[in-house]
Amino acid sequence: MIKLQNIQKVYRTDTIETLALNGINLDVAKGEFLSIMGPSGCGKSTLLNIMGLLDEPSKGSISIAEQTTGRFNDKQLAKFRNQKLGFIFQSYHLIGDLQVIDNVELPLLYRDTNAKERRRLATEALEKVGLSNRLKHFPKQLSGGQRQRVAIARAIVGNPEIILADEPTGNLDSAMGNEIMDILLQLNRNDGTTIVMVTHDENMAQKTHRLVRLFDGSQVQ
Amino acid sequence: MIKHLFKLIWNKKKQNFLLITEILVSFMVIFAVFILVVNYYQHYKQPMGFEYDHVWVVNYQSDVKIKDKDSLDVYYKTILSNIKAMPQVQEVSFASSNVPFSANTHMNNVDYKKVHVNRVNYYTAGDAYDKVLNMKVTEGRWFGKQDDAATVKPVIINRTLRQQLFGNGKALGEKVGGNDSKRIIVGVVEDVKAKGDYQEAGLAMYERIDTSSNDGRGRILVKVNANADAAFESRLYKLMASNSNNSGIEIEHLTDKRKTINNTTLIPMIILLVVACFLIINVALGLFGVLWYNINKRKGEIGLRRAIGASGDSVSWQLVTESMILATLALFIGIFFAVQFPLLNVFDLPASVYLTAILLSVMFIYLLVLICSLYPGKQASAILPAIALHEE
Ligand SMILES: Nc1ncnc2c1ncn2[C@@H]1O[C@H](COP(=O)(O)OP(=O)(O)OP(=O)(O)O)[C@@H](O)[C@H]1O
Ligand SMILES: [Mg+2]
């Protein structure tokens, strides 16, 4: 599903050059649930951003869902992200000025989906994460766990083949974290969604199919 | 998507209120400026209706002691023929003090049957007045010798007054005014913009000067040749001085008077324009600043939108459209106030002036908002999604 070949990422600023990723080769199979672990600053988020086409590698090639995306222009990348990928972040990234339901509809706004269909799909996605009674709430009226569930609903509303989650439980206590983890496991099991998750939590990682460890930008296992 | 943006704006109404107010205030200022500009421009477009080049105005104070009407008549006509005899002089005529481009006005009413017209400029004019100023007589004739024996005072009116009094009906031979002061219309002339290029011609009625009385006089209009110079001017001055005991003689050129009166109408407008410019710059900077600030504050949102499928162009389109929606909301309120002016007829201006001013102001505001939001929008589209998400 995702194929990374010899990925290198260098961040250059005026004074320093950071080698965030070096020689990453990774294959994620369709329907696989992969977790990535490693100490802070080792390049986990960078790797996930590159998989999510939010950032370009300095070297190496990526192919996702049988497509090599290196030559995509901005519009094609946007469309690809919209249709194939769903993102979940540690800090949720909900739009505070929009109600829960509108936040969840957001990815569909960048497609040709009519308003009624958008509403239906968003409600369905919120049902899946157990939040069908919070449609009209604003994000600040929700708990952290609820917010992350909204973010998951937003990630799955467009029915993507791949979900990329960057420390989805990082801001939550273990009970809430387990809830979120259960939802992700269910998505993987029931819908066959391919999931790549960055985590700091060994217990979470143990529940996934495979674990990749990074250290200083390189794969260690 | 537009509906989505409306929702976003509505949910942020507190933050947007200030911006809308700012746009609204600038709309009202621009509207005021455009009313003035459009009004002046519409007047400016109208023809002058006469020629002012090489026309001089002789001011004098006549304190003639002659009482006998016939002698007085002879005395005044001699002055005119003495001036006319000078080789540089083409035409000469007596005039009342409200000569073209002067600050003097004589206003009165005119009645015709049931029609009552206010604010009519009254001019007292000699028989060659029309030739001095090269005015166009469109109906009937100007004053002449045949009016010496007239029992009803002859008058000439301008086109606009003719329109108001008679519409498309007959004007010549009609009698206007009260029973005791009936006047008969013998001619119609083209409108004369006597108050300068930027003021309307208004309504005008011309009466024939009576050279056997001392009233209604005080100015002599002289049309001179192109070669009339300072030496000639001083000879003209001397001639007048010897005729009228040298009291308060002054010679002015209509070209100079035109500049003066145009300046007095333009200067307030220029001041207003300068003030408006400062305001606009202020508003533009404010707008620019707010949009810029918004983009930096909304980096997380921008990054997220990029992640879930917005291209750079659609992000910048969204930000520009949001500003345009805000402008539209402000303009709705603004136009609501602005249309009250023609509806309530606040300044006695034609509705077309207000409507043109509204149209121009709306376009101006849209353009201003567009310009102020294009660059921040462009900037937002260049933000890399990974970095935008990182900074939240
Ligand atoms: N935009 C950037 N410019 C320069 N350096 C960057 C940038 N983003 C990340 N880095 C550097 O790249 C390295 C990897 O960063 P990354 O965010 O991928 O780490 P991480 O493994 O996700 O850490 P954490 O567990 O704390 O989230 C770090 O050394 C970081 O300082
Ligand atoms: Mg990270």
From TrEMBL, chain A:
Recorded coiled-coil stretches: none
Pfam entry (one): ABC_tran
Residue span, ABC transporter domain: 2-220
Keyword annotations from UniProtKB, A to Z: ATP-binding, Nucleotide-binding, Translocase, Transport
Keyword Transcription regulation: no
GO molecular function: ATP binding
Similarity comment text for this entry: Belongs to the ABC transporter superfamily.
PANTHER family given in the database record: CELL DIVISION ATP-BINDING PROTEIN FTSE, LIPOPROTEIN-RELEASING SYSTEM ATP-BINDING PROTEIN LOLD
The name this protein goes by in its record: ABC transporter ATP-binding protein
Native organism: Mucilaginibacter rigui
Lineage: Bacteria, Pseudomonadati, Bacteroidota, Sphingobacteriia, Sphingobacteriales
UniProtKB/TrEMBL annotation, chain B:
Boundaries of every MacB-like periplasmic core domain copy: 23-231
Location(s), subcellular: Cell membrane
Transmembrane segments: 16-41, 266-294, 315-339, 351-375
InterPro entries: ABC3_permease_C, MacB_PCD, Macrolide_Exporter_MacB
Keywords linked to the UniProt accession: Cell membrane, Membrane, Transmembrane, Transmembrane helix
Pfam families xref list: FtsX (PF02687), MacB_PCD (PF12704)
Stated family: Belongs to the ABC-4 integral membrane protein family.
Signal sequence annotation: none
Domain ABC3 transporter permease C-terminal positions: 274-382
Protein name: ABC transporter permease
Membrane topology term: Multi-pass membrane protein
Domain of life: Bacteria
High-level lineage: Bacteria, Pseudomonadati, Bacteroidota, Sphingobacteriia, Sphingobacteriales
